[in-house]
Amino acid sequence: MNCGISSDGGWASHLGEPKVKLTFASYNIHKGVGVDGRRDADRIITVLREVNADIIALQEADRRFGQRASVLPRAMLDDTPWRAVPVAKRPRSLGWHGNALLVRRDIECVEAHALDLPMLEPRGAVMAELVSEGRRLRIFGVHLDLSGLRRRDQINALLGQCNGGEPCPTVIMGDFNQWGRLTGAMQAFGVAWQLIAPGASYPSQRPVALLDRIVASRHWDFCDAGVHHSAMAAQASDHLPIWAELLLPKK
């Protein structure tokens, strides 16, 4: 899906491209249902404002059945600093298999796609090609297999998407459903990627598991990362949001 081309006709490719520092966040919003059993989109928006990231991957952003309607009304997003990347295949959805991407309004989207993944249970991923301050980025939002039986296959499918396109700074983020920091399917990334596990993010009130991750290509310099643990975040979903600040050095 084409999202529009930047004013210079595409990606900036000239020498002297600026350095770019961006904050990335991933948040499994549990279909907007908090630990108290209430569905409350306002709480999710409040937490997103607290995190205040530039690019956000959401998981479980759509309801599971029926028309797969978004749990965050688009009119509500209109009052935020972000817009949804157009990856949905259903008119009332925000994402694909619940995966959605939000970007600040000054970040340009050039392409966006919903991706199918090898699966035993309904799973998918979303991808966007973005331009920030003239620099090209590739972003994936994912929610991987819960059973673990196809998780490595899913990561290999994502890496195949990266290898099949023009090399560029890439960030893959989401709920990997992997408990160990560098164990199991995460080993498929090898040394070519930076694996960022900011800390335990699940369950939100007493986090013990590192299910939520951010993985960055070696184009990026790592600056900082963390788990956002506020009183609102502890109530709004069963996961806490994670974030990472990454720097794309000047060429």
Brief overview:
The chain has four helices and twelve strands. The protein has 251 residues and is of the alpha+beta class.
- Give the percentage of residues in beta strands: 25-35%
Could you say what the CATH topology is called? Deoxyribonuclease I, Chain A
In which order are the strands of the major sheet placed? 3-4-2-1-12-11
Q: Say which CATH homologous superfamily is assigned.
A: Endonuclease/exonuclease/phosphatase
Distance linking N and C termini? 29 Å
Kindly give the count of domains.
1
> Can you give the mean pLDDT?
91
Tally of strands: 12
Summarize the SSE layout with pairings.
Elements: E1 20-28, H1 41-51, E2 55-59, H2 74-77, E3 82-84, E4 100-104, E5 108-116, E6 124-132, E7 135-143, H3 151-164, E8 170-175, E9 193-196, E10 212-217, E11 221-227, H4 231-236, E12 242-248
Parallel strand pairs: 1-2, 7-8
Antiparallel strand pairs: 1-12, 2-4, 3-4, 5-6, 6-7, 8-10, 9-10, 11-12
Task: Sum up the structure in keywords.
six-stranded mixed β-sheet, 12 strands, 251 residues, 4 helices, alpha+beta, Deoxyribonuclease I, Chain A
